[in-house]
Design brief:
The protein is an alpha/beta fold. The strands form 2 sheets. Strands 1, 2, 3, 4, 5, 6, 7, 8, 9, 10 and 13 form an 11-stranded mixed beta sheet that branches. It contains 10 helices and 13 strands.
């Protein structure tokens, strides 16, 4: 979207910079601090990340305010493509969501069934922090609540059906975890941000391993026909690199405490 000028020994070199709309999970987990320098070295292109909830990131791309979109809400991404805002959605990587809460687990949620755990949250009026920010994590949480049967089938679950302790913070994943840590609440988190989170206090992972907690990420180039001023060529270079063996191996190599945070699964 923008370019700067570097002066090297009397020669001026235009440095390409892309704007990426992405999620707080990719930024707060530390992935981009690991991934983007490798892309810069391979391509000479810098990327400025605007990290917001997935819904906000997609809205940003709909306005033509991002050269590339990297998010994690497959249904919303497919809609973005179907409406002509991008030609193609590229799967990039996945991880999973986990339900985090106090180690002593006063509501008795511990296990592998996320829907059963949310039913217990509602029944016990347990303190629960929701992102409430139209992020990919927020969308996943809402889908899971719909499976609890505490509202009519297929209908969004009103907040008052989720227990008296349910609160929306309208915030990113890191702040939501901080609130949960300070108040002894439960929270749904992406595993990447959880692994990089340092202020855990008494929190622990209580529910994991349910296939419904799968978390897929995708990347898209907003339509050059709709947004001719964007750097679509540069954005496609990033997409091509991040789904290539070099980009995929860079994603796989990102670890915290020896644990891999994201698992590449780009289509060949």
């Amino acid at each position: 979207m923008a370019a700067g000028v570097l002066f090297l020994s009397g020669w001026s070199v235009r440095a390409e910079t892309l704007t990426m709309a992405s999620t707080t999970s990719t930024e707060q987990s530390g992935l981009f601090a690991h991934l983007l320098p490798a892309f810069r070295q391979a391509s000479g292109i810098d990327i400025k990340v605007v990290a917001v909830g997935t819904g906000q990131a997609i809205d940003m791309a709909r306005r033509g305010d991002a050269d590339v979109l990297f998010v994690h809400d497959t249904a919303a991404e497919e809609k973005f493509v179907a409406e002509g805002f991008a030609a193609k959605r590229y799967p990039v990587m996945y991880n999973d969501f986990v339900l985090v809460g106090p180690k002593n687990d006063p509501a008795g949620l511990r296990g592998k069934d996320i829907v059963a755990a949310l039913k217990k949250v509602a029944a016990a009026d347990a303190p629960f922090v929701s992102r409430g920010d139209k992020s990919g994590t927020d969308a996943a949480e809402r889908r899971l609540w719909m499976q609890t049967g505490v509202a009519d089938a297929g209908q969004p679950v009103p907040n008052d059906r989720k227990g008296a302790g349910y609160k929306e913070c309208g915030c990113g994943m890191g702040p939501a975890l901080n609130i949960a840590a300070s108040s002894g609440a439960y929270v749904l988190a992406d595993r990447g941000t959880w692994l990089s989170f340092r202020n855990r206090q008494d929190l622990a992972v209580l529910v994991e391993g349910d296939k419904r907690l799968f978390n897929q990420y995708g990347v898209m180039v907003p339509s050059p026909a709709k947004f001719p001023r964007l750097d679509s060529a540069g954005a496609q270079k990033f997409v091509d690199w991040v789904i290539s063996p070099a980009g995929q191996s860079t994603i796989a190599s990102y670890r915290i405490g020896g644990e891999q945070l994201f698992f590449p699964n780009a289509s060949p």
